[in-house]
Structure formats: structure tokens, C-alpha cells
Amino acid sequence: MRKFTQLLGLALVALLLLPQSIMAEQRVTMYFVDGSGNRVRQVTATIGEEFIEPTLVVEPANTGGRVVYESTDYNVANVDMMSGDVTLGTTGRATITATFGGTEEYGVNSASYQLIVEAAQDTTPVVPPTPTCPEARWNLPADNVLTLHVGDIVSVPELMGGAGSLLYLSMKYIDNIRVAELTESDMIWARGVGTTTFTGTVLQGGADGSGQTLQCDYIFTIVVEEAAPQKADPQLSFSATEVNVELGETFVAPTLLNPHNIEFTAMNSKWYTNWDSKIASVNEMTGAVTLLGGVGKETITFEFTGNDTYKGGMASYVINVTTSGLVVGGVLVNNGNAGDVLNDGSIVWDPITHTLTMTNAAISGANINLTGTTTQVINAAIYYADKYPLTVVLNGGNTIANTDAGIYTENAPVVMRGGKDGGSIRISASTVGVKAEAFKIYRCYVTTYGNAAGVAVNELAVATGGNLVAQGGIAAQANSLVLAEDNDGEGISILTAGVVFKKGTGFVNVTDGKQVAFVEIGKVVVVPTTTEVTTIDFTQTDPEGDETVIFSTSVNDTYNEETGQLEISTSLTDEQVATAMETLIPGSSEWIDMLPGSLVFDIPAGEGTVRIQCMTLPGYTLQVKMEGKAAVSLTQVSLGWAEVSYNVVEPIHVVIYLHVASGSAPARIAANMEDTDPTVGAYIQAVKIAPKNAPDPNPTTAIEIIEANQGENGKILMNGQLFIIREGRVFTATGAQVK
């Protein structure tokens, strides 16, 4: 019917509009106003409340024309077609339109307003629930009555909730302290004959979280009678007052001594310990003790409330639970297994000196949780939670493999040394090889592998006879690195294979207190002072007296001994170099494969210039790419000096490489080790790093190639194949010592 009415209204509007709209030239003015006479385009109504429709104003008023009303949604607002009265339906929006049908003098026009219909608001106030007192009863033999004799001292009975749980008493009160009172240890002491009441209070909180608290009082009667005839002392004690047990060992409880053979029952005796003990629990009927995995002291108490012959009495002993804090291959080390931890004769633990001796041992396996000593379970092949330094002695070759960490200590340093005949260990883990407060090695060879870091410590120290090969996402992450010297004066080697030490760490040599370099296989590390010019040499004499080219692994690039020059023929693209510097680890095999013929070194933090004595052949340029900066092109038609300025806040990598400048460059000849005259794109004779305010690095006299002084200025040179630390020590790229 409503739909029919709507359609009928539209038809009437059409009939009204048709003839007049054709003839008339004027239009009436139409708009809606509220009760105050203000024009309105939108009004709001609430279901269930009175709604007064806006009034339609038509000017001029007496035109003789007819007005018809309609609604865009009769479910929301049903409007009377002739009067404009609105009946509210459901919530929503509807547009009410009044259409003037027109006359011979005035044309058709309309006006409308939008009606928003809202639901009525629930104004019923929310009353938070009132807390109620729980049902409870006192655990007493007689209903709500505790009968005592003068002089008795007993525990306060337990208050049992309706579900059988214990209710916590926040307050306790005895009405007549002449009859009974509470002692300092919270026991009921019967003082005189009579009757009184005991009140225990439970604070019950509101369930709505409003903070309302209800005080619930529970009362029982205390009846104190004349003292019974004097009872004998039960003379209870234990065979030992203190028992030491190491976590993981079998606990043997001391014997309860009962010289009078008193019969103990559930009604006259019980065993107990602290309410929230994390050390041990005890069966209140049998006295059987269970260690809970915590470390510390716990008191086990047996209480006898008395019988017709003997008065009440108590006896206690203390359990002192200790631990080595050491887990090896998932085995908790204790006094019982210290002599042969893995049951294969390869590992021995000395708890006095905190020393773990490994003899050709292989360790793997997950850690077990030392409850009470750590908040999380650390998966490590060797896990140590004690505060004393952990010493690991290596005999022969040893290995550690774990899915997370190789050696992990909570807060103690790790000292690793070789046995009488020396020793070595290989530590591999998917996260970190060694994680400790500090890590010191001497008289042994250590290799660490970890995806995150080979070694992650606060201080890394390499002392007499120690060698470390650290490999990982970060080879060695430390706040300080200490390099000592051997007794024979030779240097200590710190090696990384294809990875870098973390930048920003202060590695210091204890012999002279000077800063030492970050070390990477396949690159030159230079740490000049702020006032001196440093020259990068291109050759280094190895222990056999042979010169070794350190700049490149490419057979196309050679070193000319007669001229002292690098002859570079391998050309690279800028994109190739940028990709390598942004995504690869300097010194890695991927780096060497992508950047053949490049000269790689570090420049220090600060401001200065890199000066290159070079010459480029037609069609080629030398590019100088500094980490994070655009490459700079150098063209030298004759041998001379070119320079590139720098100003950096921390040491950065620099790569010098050959670039094809145009299509006129000669085709590169495929060279091999027997080539005597490969195609050469550029020559480099010297590279100098000159910090700001340094002396003039370009004297007028001929440039002399300065030999490297490794011991004094901290320069370390290598060729990607041999890693030369100090004279007499040579290593392969994988860290194996050649001599």
C-alpha cells in the first residue's frame, strides 16, 4: 500500500507539473524553517520521541497552487502526501521533498530537507555488582569450636572455601587475650581458663574491577580448659640439621629421631615447608621431599601437636641446594658426574677451580633449564650460569656443534687455554659461536662459526700462544680487543675469513696502547694518525723472501717489478662495484669474484685526501668509489698524482677499479698466468692517505715506495690467498696456519 501511495504521489506531481510548467514564466520561493523561523536543510529525530516537522514556506503565499510531499525512504519516514506530516519508522536517513505543482502564473518548484532518524539512547544507569562474602568453614574437629588446655600452643586452623580451596586471612583477632592470644609467630597460645572468639578476616574484591572491597569476618569459638597433667617432652630431632645436595643429584633426607617411639598420625602431626618455596616441597603425611629445581636454602619442618602422654614438639633441618651452573651437551654437571661428564672419558669438571677439561671431546645437544638461575632457556652446547670465570682446557682436537649457541655464559668470562701439549677447538652454531662477558684465549687454536657472530663479548683478549679464527655474520663483536705478544716477541694473530669485525669498536694493543685495525681477508687496512701521510705499498716480502702481490686475484692484472706499478686490465662497471659494496662482505669469495683487479682499503674518520700516483690509457679511467658516495673518475694521460677528498665520521671502505670510459678502449686480451704482455688499462704506482693538516705528501724528489712497518703503524697486508700478520706467521684464507 505504501509503495502504491508513493507511486500515486509521483503521478499527481507529474500531472500538476505538466501544463503549468509549459505556460508559466515565474517561480515561487520555497524553503523549510524550524520553530524559531530559521531555515533548515537537515533535522534529526529520535524514535519514541515527539517529532515536529519543519514548516514549509512558499512565497508568495496565495498562489493557488497545490503542494505534494514525498519521502525517499518510507521505511524510515512515512510522509503524508498532502499535509507533510511525518511518521517515524526505523533508523536511517530519508529526504522529504515538497513539490509545488505550478499555476498559469508560476512554474513548478520544490524544496527538501534531510531527516536523520536515530535510535533512543539507553539511559539506564549501570550498577556494578556488589561483592559478596564466599561460603567458608574452619577446619576444626568440632563445628566452629577449638578446645585447648592452658599452655597449649597451636597453629591457626585453615579456613576452607566452598570449593575446597584455602582462603587467605588478611587479619586475625582474638576477643579476650586473657583466655588466648596470638604469638609473634602467629600461633594460638591458650593462657587461661575461659571462652573467647577468634575472628579471621578475608577481604573480598568486586568482580567488576571497580575496586570495591568487602570485609568478610569468619568466627569460631576458643574454649580453654584446665591444663592436663604434665606431659613428657617428645624429644624430636633429625640425624642432621643441614643437608647439602647439588642440583641433579639424588637427595637423601636425614632421619627423624623419635626416641619414645611415638605413633604419629594424620591427626597429630604434619610436615611442611615455606608456602611459596621454589627450592623443595614435602609430603605433609610422609615427609618425602621433592627438589623443585631452584637453588638456595629451604627448611623442612616436622610438627607433632601432642597426645595424651606427650606434649607437642617440632624438629627441622635445612636443605642447601647448590649447582655448578654448568650444562654440557644437555647434561647438568654436578658432583656425581664431574669426573666424566659425558660418560665417555672426554670431559672432566673441577668445581673448585671452575675448570672444564676437554680431551678430544665432541659436544652437541640442547641445554636444560636451570630453574632459579635464569629467566629463559638458552640452547647452548656449553651453558654456564655461575658468576665465577669459566676456564676451558683443551687437549687435542675438540669440537662443539649446536643449533643456537656454542658457549653461552650468563655473566661470567670464559678463559680458554691449551693443555700441556696445546690443543684446539672448532665451535659452530647457527646463531653465535661464543657469547660471554669476556673471552680470553692463549696457548690454543680456536675457530668459531655463527650466523649472527663468531664471537660476541664485551672484551676479546688474545694472549700468549693464542690463535683465533672467527667467522660469522660478524666475526667478532666486542667493546674492546686486547692483543698481547708471545714470549718470543712474535705477534698474536686475529683472523677473519670473509667477514668483518663490527665497526665502532675500540680495539687496543696492550703493548703500546694504540688503536689497531679491523682485519679482513682480501683487503689492506690502514690506520694513519691525524697528522701523518700513509703510503699503501703493493708488495710485501713473505718469510721465504718472495714478493707477493696483494692487490688482486685476477690473472689479467699484474705487478711490474721493474716499474713498481700495478698494471690493471680488468674493467668493472659502477653498478657492479656499488652492488658489491652494498650487499657483499669485503674479503669474501663473492667479493673477490665480483671485483677482480680492485684495490681495497680503509680510510680513517675525519677529513683529508686520497692521492693516487697513476696513469690511464686511452679509453679507460680509474674510478674511486667510497662507501656511501658516488664514484669519482680519474684520467691521467701521463704518470702523475690525482686526488679525491674525503670527510667521513667513521672509517669506510674505498675501492679503486678500472672502468671502460668509451667504445674506443682496446679489446681486452684473455690473459693467463703465462701472459707476459696483457692488455693494460691503467697503471698505479702509489696510493697515499693524507689527513687534513698532514705534511705535504708529494715531495719534489722521486717517490720512493716505503716498505710496510707492520709492528709500529698497525698496517696489515694480505693478498686474498695468504694472510700475513707478522713476520714468521702466514695463514691461508680459511685460517689454517702455514708457518
Describe this protein's structure.
- This protein folds into 5 domains: 117 residues, Immunoglobulins (Immunoglobulin-like, Sandwich); 90 residues, Immunoglobulin-like, CATH 2.60.40; 86 residues, Immunoglobulin-like, CATH 2.60.40.60; 184 residues; 181 residues, Jelly Rolls.
- Strand 44 and strand 45 form a beta hairpin.
- It has 4 helices and 56 strands.
- With 739 residues, it is mainly beta.
- The chain has a 15-stranded mixed beta sheet that branches. Strands 43, 46, 47, 49, 52 and 54 form a 6-stranded antiparallel beta sheet that branches.
Q: How can the largest sheet be summarized? A: 15 strands, mixed
Helix content: under 10%
The overall average pLDDT, rounded, is 77
Radius of gyration: 47 Å
- Roughly how many Å apart are the termini? 107 Å
Give short descriptive properties of this protein:
disordered N terminus, 739 residues, Immunoglobulin-like, single chain
Q: What's the layout of helices and strands?
A:
Layout lengths: L1 H22 L2 E2 L1 E5 L8 E5 L8 E5 L7 E5 L5 E3 L6 E3 L3 E9 L5 E2 L1 E10 L17 E3 L6 E5 L3 E3 L3 E3 L9 E4 L5 E3 L4 E4 L3 E12 L7 E13 L11 E2 L3 E5 L9 E2 L11 E4 L7 E3 L6 E3 L4 E9 L8 E10 L3 E3 L2 E2 L14 E4 L4 E5 L2 E2 L16 E5 L5 E13 L2 E5 L4 E16 L2 E11 L1 E19 L3 E12 L2 E4 L9 E4 L9 E4 L24 E3 L2 E3 L5 E3 L8 E3 L4 E4 L5 H10 L5 H6 L4 E5 L2 E11 L3 E7 L5 E3 L5 E9 L3 E9 L21 E10 L18 H4 L8 E3 L5 E3 L7
Parallel strand pairs: 1-9, 3-10, 12-19, 21-27, 31-34, 32-34, 33-35, 34-36, 35-37, 36-37, 36-38, 37-38, 38-39, 38-40, 39-41, 40-42
Antiparallel strand pairs: 2-4, 5-8, 6-7, 8-10, 11-14, 13-17, 15-18, 16-17, 18-19, 20-22, 23-26, 24-25, 26-27, 28-29, 28-33, 30-31, 43-54, 44-45, 46-47, 47-54, 48-53, 49-52, 49-54, 50-51, 50-53, 55-56
